[in-house]
Amino acid sequence: MKQSVEYLKKALEYLEKCELESPYSNAVDIESAKIAIQIVELEHEIEDARQLHHIEDMEELKKQRDILIKKIKPEVKI
User: Fold this and answer.
1) Measuring CA to CA, which residue among 47, 70, 71, 68 is closest to residue 57?
2) From CA 76, how far away is CA 4, in angstroms rounded?
3) 17, part of any domain
4) I want to staple 54 with a disulfide (CB 3.0 to 4.6 A). Which of 8, 34, 39, 49 is the partner?
5) pLDDT in tens, 40-70
6) How many domains in the chain?
7) What residues have CB less than 8 Å from 35, skipping those under 6 apart?
């Protein structure tokens, strides 16, 4: 799992470089990509807390994750 996070971080570095050097600078939302990596890291921490039966920690991590998810996908109001 840590390898996948490292891969995502390297991909993000590449995207940041492309954003600076490319005429397609607006093609990728770098901030959303950074938040997505934070969400993946929190998911790993949530799973670790679940396996260790640290329920309070798990709930706090889920709250943090949900806040980040809303930054990427705000709720649609109809």
Assistant:
1) 47
2) 30
3) yes
4) 49
5) 889 889 999 999 999 999 999 999 999 988 8
6) 1
7) 68, 71, 72
Domain that holds residue 34: 2-72
What's the token pair of residue 10? 């390297």
Burial 10-39 (b: 16+ CB within 10 A, else e): eebeebeeebeeeeeeeeeeeeebbbbeeb
Task: Give residues with Cβ within 8 angstroms of 24, minimum separation 6.
Answer: 18
CA angle, 68 then 71 then 74, to 5°:
125
pTM of model > 0.70: no
* The pair of three-digit structure tokens given for residue 15, joined into one six-digit string: 């995207």
Q: Which residue has the tokens 């959303």?
A: 32
The predicted-structure confidence for 5-30, as pLDDT tens digits, reads as follows 777 777 777 777 766 666 655 556 77
